[in-house]
Amino acid sequence: VIGVASGGTTFGTGYEQARGAVEGNALPLLFFVEKLAASFLSMLSGIPGGIFAPSLAVGAGFGSTVGSALGTSIALAAILGMAGYFAGVVQAPMTAFVIILEMTGDHQAVIPIMAVSMIGYVTSRILSREPLYHGLSRVFIAAAIRARRAAQKDSE
């Protein structure tokens, strides 16, 4: 429903929209809210939708909206939005910084990208002490422990 209401912009990974924002093309003002909602609902429903690319798209959308509202560079705002949001989602600021720097090749914005990555990380840690991938791995670890215990019981 969100995809149809957004004119199809929230379908898929959001790679094209993020690339457009990084190139300086403003995204629709509510794109980041729509993409965030679509990604969240996909995750809740169990439909595999990914974390990496949708997080970059939401961040680029947020940055594009802030850049438009402030009348500043859409491209820089999108890059900073991607870095901050992704660092917050994965709680890995150095990873976010390196990935965004490598993706964009924008070496003039090294310090702002680092700073926004740290802000995203700190904000995320305030909201959730456990990193996303650690929480997701708990399900797999618990299943492996249950399987090992079941195998031990069967062998006894």
Can you lay out the helices and strands and say which pair or pack?
Layout: H1 2-5, H2 15-22, H3 31-45, H4 52-70, H5 74-90, H6 93-104, H7 110-127, H8 132-155
- The low-confidence parts are none
The largest sheet is: none
Q: Give the overall silhouette.
A: globular
Mean pLDDT: 90
| Tally of helical segments | 8
Total strands: the figure is 0
What percent of the residues sit in helical stretches (DSSP H or I)? Answer: over 70%
Structural class of the secondary structure composition? mainly alpha
Number of separate domains: 1
Keywords: Chloride, Chloride channel, Ion channel, Ion transport, Membrane, Transmembrane, Transmembrane helix, Transport
Subcellular location: Membrane
Transmembrane segments: 36-62, 74-101, 107-128
Membrane topology: Multi-pass membrane protein
